[in-house]
Structure formats: structure tokens, C-alpha cells
Amino acid sequence: MRVIARFAGPNGEIAVVEELATGARFYREGGVDQSRVLAGGEAGVDYIRLMAALLGDGGDVLLLGCGGGALATMLHRRGRSVTVVDVNPVSFQLSRTFFWMPHGIECVGADMRAFVRSEARAFAAIGIDVGGPCFSYEEVLEPATVAHVRRVLRNGGRIAINISCEAPDDPAPGRIADRFAAEGLEVWLFQEDTRLSQANAVILASARVEAPSALLALAGEHWSLARLGL
Predict the structure, then answer these.
(1) Could you tell me where the DSSP H helices lie in the chain?
(2) Which residues contact 36 (CB under 8 A, 6 or more apart)?
(3) CATH assignment at residue 185
(4) In a domain, 124, yes or no
(5) Which one of 3, 7, 88, 102 has the lowest number of neighbouring Cβ atoms within 10 Å?
(6) Whole-prediction pTM
């Protein structure tokens, strides 16, 4: 490993670290790895690939949270119109300079809660991947914000939310899922194999009827699927 750049960030030092054997790069903030991006810009973690599969059939996509920009890059390369919102605008510069994010992606420096509260556009798909040291999903994705996210989703659209779980029985994904179900969305939970070093949960909140077999086919190995909010 080698550190190729360091910057001051709102949650501590941001470091760009490169894996010498593969050329993959890590976006590390406050000592925590936020992204792993393969050389060229594709995601190096399973949950980003799953989110790209869930959101990739939409037209224009809103992404709340940037990190290394791999999700935005993958969707842009699939022909989607992508808008990325992040409270830390230095993320956009880092993603373009060190993580191969294309310049054709619209980037907005703003708090995601303020953005969805005032945004007039509606999007075919929405991805939420926010976090960091001392981050609270339940505080940021409180019911009023979830209602605004639902408001800017078009009929028939999908919302995919990544939750980094602190333990296999972490209650946060279920509580967040309940808030999206309260907005009249069909809610599914993809749970990553807990034998892996860091488990993620991806919530799918959908404004359409989903087929579980099709969702499982998108997820592939290392993921279980459950319907919530029935």
C-alpha cells in the first residue's frame, strides 16, 4: 500500500491509498475506508455493485453521498444521467482526480437533507450511501428526510440505501426500512454474508412490484433477501 494524497476533511484526514499489486484505490476518511475503487473506476466492493444493478435501469439517477464516486461512474457508463450530492465538495475533486469519475456527472455540494427538502426535480432512481466516523443513520435518515426522498422519486422508481452494520443483529437497517415502508414503498432487505470482515445491508425501497427471484439474480452470491414492512 502507498498513500498518494492527503487532505483535511470534515471528519478527519482524507487519504487516497493505492494497492500496489492491483492499482485499486481506497478513499479513507478519519482512518475508515469509505470506498475501494478498481483501476479504471469500477467498484471494488460488492454492495456498490449491487446498488448499481438495482439503480441501473432508471433514467436519471440521484446519488446522495459520493465517496470515491464508483457508483456514479458505473451508472454514468451505463448511459444514466447522474447527479451526486455530498456535503463535502472536496469529494468530487478527489473522485475525478484519483478515482476516474467522469466530468459529465453533475455534482452538488450540499447537505443531503437540505437538498431533498428543496429539490424540485424528480428522479427515476435514488441511491443513498452516506456514512463516516460517528455517523448515525437513524439521525440523518429521520422520517421527515425519508418523506422528502420519497417525494423526489418518480412513480415506478427505486431507492437503494446502504447501511454499514456494526454487528450481525444491528437494528438500524430494520428501523430505516420501516421509515421507507411508511411512505408506501415496497421494502426489501439485502443482507451481506456476516462471515465477511465487514457486513453491509442494502435496503431496496421500491415504487413498483418486485419479483424476489429477479432481485436475487441481481444480488448474486454472499447476499440474503427478505421482504420487510408487510
Answers:
(1) 46-55, 70-77, 90-98, 112-118, 137-140, 143-151, 172-181, 212-219
(2) 24, 25, 26, 43, 44, 45, 68
(3) 3.40.50.150
(4) yes
(5) 3
(6) 0.93
